[in-house]
Write a structure and sequence with these properties.
Layout lengths: L1 H20 L13 E4 L2 E2 L5 E2 L2 E4 L7 E4 L2 E2 L5 E2 L2 E4 L9 E2 L2 E2 L5 E2 L2 E2 L1
Protein name: YXWGXW repeat-containing protein
Organism: Desulfofervidus auxilii
Amino acid sequence: MFRRFLLFLISCIIILPLVFLSCVHARPPKPGPNFVWVAPHTTPNGVFIPGHWKYVGPAKKGKVWIPGHYRPNGKWIPGHWKILTPPRAKAVWVPGHYGPGGRWIPGHWR
């Protein structure tokens, strides 16, 4: 009887942590140098923003870092590099940002 209980206890000690291992949430790998991790948070409007990498380094010619954001359909888009190709001469790139109501405004040419 004691032996059966001991086997059950040992199997629980070995198997139970493996079951909970799938519940662990880790941040995605760092995309490169000059990035900082922004922890998950909720805006004052109640919008949940998942954790994401934010680029804080110097500007890169011809590229812009698009931070993670929600699309209008509610899907989360992770941060990524976008290659800039101006549509016309003297166009200026306006980086994506959150508007006054907390809604994401994607980067665009002006």
